[in-house]
Design brief:
The chain is of the alpha/beta class. The protein is built from 18 helices and 27 strands. It has three domains: about 5-180, Alpha-D-Glucose-1,6-Bisphosphate, subunit A, domain 3 (Alpha-D-Glucose-1,6-Bisphosphate, Chain A, domain 3), CATH 3.40.120.10; about 185-410, 3-Layer(aba) Sandwich (Alpha-D-Glucose-1,6-Bisphosphate, Chain A, domain 3), CATH 3.40.120.10; about 410-544, Alpha-D-phosphohexomutase, C-terminal domain (TATA-Binding Protein), CATH 3.30.310.50. Strands 2-6-5-3-4-9-8 form a seven-stranded mixed β-sheet, with helices on both faces. It has a seven-stranded antiparallel β-sheet with strand order 20-21-24-25-26-19-27. It has a five-stranded mixed β-sheet with strand order 11-10-12-13-14. Helix 11 links the parallel strand 15 (about 320) and strand 16 (about 340-345). Helix 2 crosses helix 3 (about 65-75) and helix 2 crosses helix 5. The model has no long low-confidence stretch (mean pLDDT about 95). The structure holds alpha-D-glucose-1-phosphate-6-vanadate and cobalt (II) ion. Alpha-D-glucose-1-phosphate-6-vanadate binds near residues 322, 347, 366, 487 and 497.
Length: about 550
């Protein structure tokens, strides 16, 4: 007999999900009732789990397996009918999204702190995805938070751990636990979207790719699809084994944390393409030989060329980008004559547009691109779409970028992150800026006149919900822009993100180094917001 225990508990402060679920230090998650309270709050917030199918998996970071065992015991006690778990407790975020949709599950729980570091002293995270496969919308995340602040009891069974290493089925009381191959369904989906035949031929003809899985979840997916199915040479995927501490690195594909890849791609004998993904496999960066493709540019290029892949041969219904993402994709949309939506940061805001068929491709400046094939951004998908396009166009990545800029002009773009800033100082910076927004238009900084300034608010065109204070944006007369936002995924103090952009139409300027092209805007941003004076920092921690 399986005993169901009702455990008395008390609310824990600050269990508010951020941009992408709840992220805290492992130590916090290990505190008594911490994980349990949040999981029970999820179950309560979605109206109970009686008879439901639930998808469960994570990026393999430290505490992944323990958390899975706890969630399985709680799911059984909450009347879940079936839990589908990735073998070894592993599932990338896009693969989990794929499974939720395929299995018509009520939802999924993904264990990851994405690009944040892992290990006993580092970060852990948990997010809930709804039945469309996407991150729970704000109505649900708000309800989860409300539950977590009122919780008095959670339910759990007293069963032993389930063996996660073999593909098999188990039962806990009336609940079935089905352990599945984490890659299989995802691979099948990719086959429906891309010409594996043409990509195979590309590799056969000697195309060289270096895919850095950063010791995170994409390793097994990339090895299976790129090396075993598409014939890329063995060793194309590096750092392919998921490790609990990601080899003591941040699994964040940016110029700082993916430094080795950048060095190779800008060094002698660079391969044709470089790519990397993050902790949970939803992000991607793309590099060509001696060139880094800004994620905002990647979105624009994919939007302009997606029709070259079988899954998108009929064109796109529309595109969507997060507000801080550059306007490069807007230019493609205008040219094609399709709608372009601007949403707040976080993939959950794309869900309604995708469900309603209003948009096919979505993207964020933070190295996230995806489409309506799932309801998450998808790192390996983006790499495959690039490969399919390269196989069709038979040009280098550099040539493709140059041709794109010649057609549309170039949106120089960079994000400056100030990490672990004192929370009060960061709050003051934003409040001070907010207070003077209405006085900014017409003022001039570094020769740049401000055209408009506001704190971005979004009204969802599908369900009418509104989200306010999503980032302060300042537009200049010169087609340049700066956006200020505080991160919702950091776990130490506050992270200030400053997004900088300048549009240039003169081809003579296209080869300028990005930070140089943005120099005036960078200085103006500091003058407007007092970054140095508020934070005491003279330089950003990460420039991407
Ligand atoms: C960051 C990115 C945002 C992304 C989010 C989750 O959020 O800026 O674009 O959606 O991470 O991505 P923030 O609030 O720290 O700026 V992931 O790869 O962590 O699921
Ligand atoms: Co991620």
């Amino acid at each position: 007999m399986t005993r169901i225990l009702k455990v008395e508990t008390t609310p824990i402060q600050g269990q508010k999900p951020g941009t992408s679920g709840l992220r805290k230090k492992v130590k916090t998650f290990k505190e008594p009732h911490y994980l349990e309270n949040f999981v029970q709050s999820i179950f309560n917030a979605v109206g109970g789990m009686e008879g439901a199918t639930l998808i469960l998996g994570g990026d393999g970071r430290y505490y992944n397996r323990e958390a899975i065992q706890i969630i399985l015991r709680m799911a059984a006690a909450n009347g879940v009918d079936r839990v589908v778990v990735g073998q070894g407790g592993l599932l990338s975020t896009p693969a989990a999204s794929c499974l939720i949709r395929k299995r018509k599950a009520k939802g999924g729980i993904i264990l990851s702190a994405s690009h944040n570091p892992g290990g006993p002293e580092e970060d852990f995270g948990i997010k809930y995805n709804s039945d469309n496969g996407g991150p729970a919308p704000e109505t649900i995340t708000n309800a989860i938070y409300a539950e977590s602040q009122n919780i008095r009891e959670y339910r759990v069974t007293d069963t032993a751990d389930i063996e996660l290493s073999e593909i098999a089925e188990f039962t806990i009381g009336a609940m079935t636990v089905e352990i599945v191959d984490p890659v299989k369904d995802y691979r099948k989906l990719m086959k429906t979207l891309f010409s594996f035949k043409k990509i195979k031929k590309l590799f056969k003809n000697g195309f060289r790719l270096r895919f850095d899985a950063m010791h995170a979840i994409t390793g097994p997916y990339a090895q299976d699809i790129l090396e075993r199915k598409l014939g890329a040479p063995k060793g194309t995927v590096i750092n392919a084994t998921p490790l609990e501490d990601f080899g003591d690195h941040h699994p964040d594909p940016n110029p700082v944390h993916a430094r080795d890849l950048f060095d190779v791609m800008f060094g002698p004998d660079a391969p044709d393409m470089g790519a990397a993904s993050d902790g949970d496999g939803d992000r991607n960066i793309i590099l060509g030989r001696g060139i880094y493709v800004a994620p905002s540019d990647s979105l624009a290029v994919l939007a302009a060329n997606a029709h070259l892949a079988p899954g998108y041969e009929n064109g796109l219904a529309g595109v969507a980008r997060s507000m801080p993402t550059s306007c490069a994709v807007d230019r493609v949309a205008a040219e094609v004559g399709m709608p372009c939506f601007e949403t707040p940061t976080g993939w959950k805001f794309f869900g309604n547009l995708l469900d309603a068929g209003k948009t096919t491709l979505c993207g964020e400046e933070s190295a996230g691109t995806g489409s309506d094939h799932v309801r998450e951004k998808d790192g390996l998908w983006a790499v495959l779409l690039w490969l399919n396009i390269l196989a069709e166009r038979q040009e280098s990545i550099r040539e493709i970028m140059k041709a794109h800029w010649r057609t549309y002009g170039r949106n120089f773009y960079s994000r400056h992150d100030y990490e672990a800033v004192d929370s009060t100082a960061a709050g003051n910076l934003m409040a001070t800026l907010e207070a003077k927004l209405s006085s900014l238009p017409g003022q001039c900084f570094e020769g740049e006149t401000i055209k408009s300034a506001d704190n971005f608010a979004y009204n969802d065109p599908i369900d009418g919900s509104s989200s306010t204070a999503q980032g302060i944006r300042i537009l200049f007369e010169s087609d340049a822009r700066v956006v200020f936002r505080l991160s919702g995924t950091g776990t130490e103090g506050a992270t200030l993100r400053v997004y900088l952009e300048r549009y240039v139409s003169d081809p003579e300027e296209f080869d300028t180094e990005t930070q140089v092209a943005l120099e005036r805007i960078i200085t103006a941003a500091d003058q407007i917001a007092g970054i140095r004076s508020h934070t005491g920092r003279s330089e950003p921690d990460v420039i991407s």
